[in-house]
């Protein structure tokens, strides 16, 4: 038995509301179970109960055993002075307030149906991956789809908080925020944080002024990421290095401290040199990038927007001083899909939320037109009977696994609470 199960039982009144008695034999009536705020202090605030003929208003504390009150030192915490009912699974000792009056106690296990307990024990049986893996396929599509929508919204809300924090750092400049997010996405998992550090430290006002010249943008990006250190025979390297020093002097900024970029085990098309060159070309060619991203209505519009290649030098190189076969190295649809999923959707949600115009229908439609991602988490869900049909569903399932399954939040999950009813 776990305490969160008792929270679930109390919160959703999964016990008879008539015939209740306290451990001292007094009749108990529940008028209002209280607010479940999940913060420090008692578990439920502002409950209303009647014990005997006396009405009480106050807080509810829930424990597995009565003596947990003393184990958790609640007797010394003023936040618990207003507890009017102690709800426990097992009453093993009377509990007293600081004024030596006994706190009324409800021993809950007498009033819970055996079927609910059996369903709970079946739900939390030892797992190989997640608790409900053997029961997932039994969940009806209506419950699942509604829950996936909720998970998707929670994921956007969580990501938007980080974006709005970044907005403060960028003094309210949404274009600068977009640049940071795109840079992180272009760096992928391996170099994403390094690209983000570069974007945060490089004033976006400089990019606005220099975007007409691709060489200057590459110089800014490569130089800030530490790719122009040392000496090379390559003439383009020398040109970029000279341009970077000129720009640094012109705008009076110092090279930021960036986590070193990684090339190891990356496919050449994902080398940081190529991704930085593509990012530079994007900002060189797309002058109204922010406006276009905010107002794009379909994946095709976004594919066209991100239809960029690299400068002529990088069409024949992956690294300085090493020539390769000529290739345009355009952004692929699969890469742009990742940009839509990880940058454009969260960015647009945060933007409209900041403008007081919360809406997710168009964002859901965009993701529903994109294939589901492919990774080990989604492979597991597929093997247990839930195969994502598109990126909207795969994003929601990732949120489910990371924020609910991994944290054992089964009783806060629509799937878990539905299984308890069976």
TrEMBL record:
It comes from the Bacteria. The lineage of its organism: Bacteria, Pseudomonadati, Bacteroidota, Flavobacteriia, Flavobacteriales. It comes from Flavobacterium pallidum. This is DUF2851 domain-containing protein. InterPro entries: DUF2851.
